[in-house]
Amino acid sequence: MTKAEELYISIGQTLENAEQSQMFGKPCFKINGKAFVCFFKHEMVFKLSGEKHREALSLAGSQLFDPSGKNRAMKEWVQIPYEHCGKWEHLAQEALKYVNQTK
Prior knowledge:
Layout: H1 3-14, E1 19-23, E2 26-31, E3 34-40, E4 43-47, H2 50-57, E5 63-65, E6 74-80, H3 88-101
Antiparallel strand pairs: 1-2, 2-3, 3-4, 4-6, 5-6
């Protein structure tokens, strides 16, 4: 297991009521059955909106999540490289908040 994956798991496990699961065959964490973070290509991916989404996309190397690799990005999901792992926990909390608001 890589450091990135270990960090992803430890962050997810600290989030209240988050459950480890799968999304498109990738590890993710869900709240009330809805995914809000996942792990892909040694990077963490967050479901965000508004200003938090813009902030996440502004980080160097960040991109919209395209799990198929066929130019069909999931517009609310931002993939953040490990070099920004210091921001992962905060972004995970923001993603959790966002998904909880969209019940």
